[in-house]
Amino acid sequence: MRFRHPDGSTVHLAYCTNVHPAETLDGVLAQLRDHCEPVRRRLGRDRLGIGLWLAHDAAHALVTDPSALRRLRTELDRRGLEVVTLNGFPYQGFGAEEVKYRVYRPDWADPERLDHTTSLARVLAGLLPDDVTDGTISTLPLAWRTAYDDARAEKSRTALVTLAERLDALAELTGRSIRVGLEPEPGCVVETTGDAIAPLTAIGHDRIGICVDTCHLATSFEDPHTAVDALTTAGIPIVKSQLSAALHAEHPHLPEVRDALAAFAEPRFLHQTRTVTGTGRHGTDDLGEAVAGGALPDTAPWRSHFHVPLHAAPAAPLTSTLPVLRTALARLVGGPHPLTRHLEVETYTWQALPPELRPRARAQLTEGIAAELTLARDLLTDLGLKELP
């Protein structure tokens, strides 16, 4: 979906396909047929933006076989879909029964991460619509925090500098400008937007910036205005933003609140949980650790890294951090000029919701994704952007 900002520029809105994980090119093509095109039709749109997630094997097939890339581009066009952004965070196995810590491997100290991201950039340059010259990729925020020492930090910095040089060369060759954004996430080396400033300043290249995920922002109790002001002051480009909402518990000391939270503790994904007290920010690596008791102070609200559907906050006594998303979006695109032009709804946890909240059929998932995009569209038009055909 495209929107005209009051300054005349185009802002793109997509939804991320990591909710339909596939490891191969055939699986990606099936996603387009079974999920993406039905969402477009449900919205009554001639064109729908999608943020593709391409696992390693799919990306490798596309970058090594020009006919495969042409096939994917043809299918996108035929189904009324367009791609200006990729989710390059998960490397592979995002559809596994247990993902947890595996999603952070390989990290930026591992050459495989550089090679994979380079492949993604080359693929994206070939998928951009004919009238679009700029693409973006979100990526791992360097590494999970443990076992990350100075030597690995230097390897990561060198890899990202090399990536920037490759992106420069790609732009010169194709005329397509691809930028990559580190996506701060609780528990990682870059947990907050503030944590991103020093390593990105050390890289010192405008092709490497930040992806602001509003679920992660909220989980870490970051104020959107403070975060964005610090990034702009430091000259860190916000290459894209993922629109997502976290799980919020206002009174975690109450037994009924703990019971409600426990229903969201599940074995597939990691749901880092945070609180802020007078002594600072405290956290656990997963929601189950928090609700078990004793690992996290319960005198202040808790937030958990669980991407809940934007349009459907959980029932009381829980809620979502949609207000943080609203504030962040207003700051990012509600001013005289957009600070980013690529927005991506990213709720990948539909099938990890408590059983009674999960879509029971493909059509229900289509309805849910369409409802999320409708909410995001309404937020954008309320900010003065005009939806384009």
Automatic annotation (TrEMBL):
Pfam families: AP_endonuc_2 (PF01261). This is Metabolite traffic protein EboE. GO terms for molecular function: zinc ion binding. PROSITE patterns: AP_NUCLEASE_F2_2. PANTHER family: HYDROXYPYRUVATE ISOMERASE. It comes from Streptomyces tagetis. Residues 57-244 form the Xylose isomerase-like TIM barrel domain.
